[in-house]
TrEMBL record:
GO cellular component terms, A-Z: mRNA cleavage and polyadenylation specificity factor complex
Known catalytic reactions: O-phospho-L-seryl-[protein] + H2O = L-seryl-[protein] + phosphate; O-phospho-L-threonyl-[protein] + H2O = L-threonyl-[protein] + phosphate
Sequence similarity: Belongs to the SSU72 phosphatase family.
Enzyme Commission number(s) of this protein: 3.1.3.16
Protein name: RNA polymerase II subunit A C-terminal domain phosphatase SSU72
InterPro entries, per database record: RNA_pol_II_suA
Keyword terms of this UniProt record: Hydrolase, mRNA processing, Nucleus, Protein phosphatase
Pfam families: Ssu72
Job of this protein: Protein phosphatase that catalyzes the dephosphorylation of the C-terminal domain of RNA polymerase II. Plays a role in RNA processing and termination.
Length: 195
């Protein structure tokens, strides 16, 4: 199925939730990109006080190889190595939302955490609006673990398919959201901003 809209999936580190959704939507033929909004990319380490921290733009392959050298058992057991392997099959490296201005305009930006939703809105509001084209920003709250990310990706796909099938998402979005919330028993936050 060819899609007509451009989608962005956004979480904090562009590792788990946004990449799970990116991978699924890409397989379904969507025009999709993904980003993180954090200052750095953080992955779990041997303890809560010792996360693995990388800069955005560090290739997933580099992270995968480094963590595999550090402690292959730990990072396989906690799902980080399989996650990084999936990621490098989707794109080269995590990208930061705030630095994506060159990527052009998206029609739909889906976030997976309220803090990320707020950051995206703030970033769009602080940009110089050049084309005055509307963009739907929608938040689907998803816990940052592998199981929830997989569930969240399927919900994101359902939602994007509903948006895609509407004649005009601007006219249909209220009904789409109400139907989704009723069916999935999940609250969504959404707003319309401009490029």
């Amino acid at each position: 199925m060819g899609t007509t809209l451009r989608y962005a999936m956004v979480c904090s580190s562009n590792q788990n939730r946004s990449m799970e959704a990116h991978a699924l939507l890409k397989r379904q033929g969507f025009d999709v990109s993904s980003y993180g909004t954090g200052a750095h990319v953080k992955l779990p380490g041997p303890s809560l006080r010792e996360p693995n921290v990388y800069d955005f733009g560090t290739p997933y392959k580099f992270m995968h190889d480094e963590l595999r050298r550090k402690d292959p058992d730990l990072y396989k057991r906690n799902g980080i190595l399989p996650m990084l392997k999936r990621n490098l099959g989707v794109k080269n490296a995590p990208q930061r939302w705030q630095d994506n201005a060159a990527d052009g305009c998206f029609d739909v930006v889906m976030t997976f955490e309220e803090k990320v939703f707020d950051t995206v809105i703030e970033d769009l509001n602080n940009r110089e609006q050049k084309v005055i084209r509307s963009v739907l920003i929608i938040n689907l709250e998803v816990k940052d673990n592998h199981e929830e990310a997989a569930t969240g990706a399927k919900l994101a796909l359902d939602l994007c398919q509903d948006i895609e099938s509407a004649d005009c998402w601007e006219d249909a979005i209220d009904d789409i959201v109400v139907a989704f919330e009723r069916q999935q028993k999940r609250k969504l936050l959404y707003t319309i901003s401009f490029y």
